[in-house]
Each structure stands twice: as structure tokens, then as C-alpha cells.
Amino acid sequence: MTTLLGRMLAPLFAVLLLCDSAAAQGKVTIAVGGGACLCYLPTVLAKQLGEFDKAGVSVDLVDLKGGSDALKAVLGGSADVVSGYFDHCVNLAAKKQDLQSFVVYDRYPGLVLVVSPKHTDEIKSVKDLAGKKVGVSAPGSSTDFFLKFMLKKAGLDPAGTSVIGVGLGATAVAAMEQGQIDAAVMLDPAVTVLQGNYKDLRILSDTRTQHDTQAVFNGDYPGGALYSTTAWIASHEKEVQALTVAILNTLNWIHSHTPEEIMAKMPVEAVGKNKEQYLAALKNTIPMYSLDGRMDPKGADAVLAVFSESSPEIAKANIDVTKTWTNKYVEQAGKTMGTNAK
Q1: DSSP bridge pairs for 62
Q2: Residues 85, 228: one domain?
Q3: N or C: which end of the chain has fewer CB within 10 A?
């Protein structure tokens, strides 16, 4: 009788154990500023590899067309964390909104200012963008920030250039090929796709390598990171730690596998139809990914300096940039993981 009762109750106990396990695993929604962009690959790959689950956090990825849209999702409460560019944390600090990055996965921003193939003859420098239509992923995104910085650096008034939201992937490539815009700030794989199709493609500025990044910004300049409001981070430290561990394990996986192996793990829709172009873009991008997830304080300072130069509002805000990032969770992960995240 006892044995029979045990057999009858066993499935119920199994269900209860599963429920307990799910309850123990925190649930987090991450808004991604364009999942097909290689700059966000570590976040998407972490999901593909099951690293979030292994770290003890259940993650839903919401794919949006730009970093500004991902930020709006978090500020509006429909997402918990942004997978986007750190510079938003600095920009919002001027508006008294407390955001903080907790793990950096891009050492360089990877932003590229490219001339439309149909306008190569007429646009030969940034100065030639005066009065032109320039594409960005979405107005208010990091691509937009970069455009305004480059225009100011060239002595132009950013208000004299029309900014058009074209997304980051196939829509951006199509807008460039059709001449709907005169130029665009793009990211890989879109840039490499255009370079493959147009050998004389004109690039006005490139931040895909350390050398080029330092030439543009006079120093290192961090790109993609996971960030959220300081209030959410403070009340979800367990989840933040788990997310950090998942990203660090993914970065370690990236740097210990071939580009071909990485591509094989990515969603089919992210890779697209032309695997050769995606692979070429991935090879260009891998050096951009962080080795240890840490924020370089000098890089954060550089972001503030760039924004202060191009925005009077930020220059006057007396921002304490050290409050816009933390290495606390990366350092804690290094102690338990035995990795180079120290």
C-alpha cells in the first residue's frame, strides 16, 4: 500500500521540485538594442549557450531596433536590463536618472561612419555631411551620439544634418544601397556586407579596433555592456551576479573557440543568408570583445569627455562618472570562477 501510494505521489513530488527550481531561478527581461548586430553578440550567444540558465537566472531577450529603444523599455518598466552601449548611462546621468553598467562585453564601440555607395563621389570627408541625410539605428541611440560627436569634431553644427532612423541590419544596408540616405553610422555585420558588395566603399571613421578607437577618441572607449537602474541593481543583486557570470563565461567561450564555431551557435536569423560575409564580419569583430568584463576607468572618463565636448547640458551637469559603472560583480565572479576576471 505504501509502495503504491509512493508511486502515485512521485509525479507530484517531481512537479513540486521543478516548481521550486523555477522559483529559485530569478527571471530577468533583457532589452537588446539590435540582436543581429555583432556588437551585442555576447548577450545573444549567452542565451544560445545556456549560460544564463547555468548561472541560475531565467532570461528573456527582447530585440529592439536601437539602444535608445532598449533604454526606453527599461525606464518604462517593460524590461529589467539593457544590453546596449555604456554611453547611455553617462548621458542619462545629466538628466538625474541613475543608470549603472555592471559588466562590459565590448572593449571598443565598433561604430563606423560610412558613405552610401551612390554618394561616394560627392562625400569625401565628414565636412561634406553638412545638409545631408545620415542614417542611425534610431534617434537618440549611440549611433546618433557618435554622429553628433563626429560632426562637432569637424566643426559642423549637428542640427544642420538630417538624422534618419534606419535600424542596424538589412534595413540599414538597403537604405544605403538604394541611396535613401547619403551616409550612415553602422555596425558589423552590416559594414562588412557593404564592403563585400562595394570595393570602393568610403569609410569616414572607424572604431572597430583599438588603434582606430584611440585615433577617434584619443583613448579607449567602451561599447556594449549590461546596465540597469541603480535601484533595480540594488534590489536584484543575485540576478545581477548571475548575469555577470553568464556574460563572463560567454566571453571566455568566445576567446577559446573559432569564428566558425561561434557562428554555428548563433540563431539562423542573426547569421542571415550569406554565411561568408557574416563570418568575415565576425572575424573583424572578435578582437572587440572584452577579455575580462571590466570597465576601464579611463574609458569611462573618455565617454564623459566626449559627451561634455558635444553637449553643453552634460558639461554643466558635474557628473560623477564613477557612479555610472561598477566592477563589483565582475570582481566577485573572478573570485568564484577562477578566471581572469579579477
Answers
A1: 31
A2: yes
A3: N
Please give the tally of structural domains in the chain: 2
Between vectors from CA 44 to CA 341 and to CA 215, what angle results, nearest 5°?
Answer: 65
Question: How far, CA to CA in Å, does 236 sit from each of 74, 76, 243?
Answer: 14, 18, 11
d(CA 208, CA 45): 20
Nearest to 83 by CA among 228, 255, 245: 228
**Do residue 165 and residue 235 come from a single domain?**
no
| Coil, strand or helix at 134 | strand
Q: For 201-226, b where at least 16 C-beta lie within 10 A, e where not — what string? A: bbebbbbbeeebbeebbeebbbbbbb
pTM more than 0.70: yes
* Strand, coil or helix: 121: coil
pLDDT at 267 (0 to 100): 95
Last residue of a domain, which of 206, 230, 258?
206
Q: Which among 33-37, 101-105, 197-201, 309-313 has the top mean pLDDT?
A: 101-105
Question: Residue 105 corresponds to which amino acid?
Answer: Y
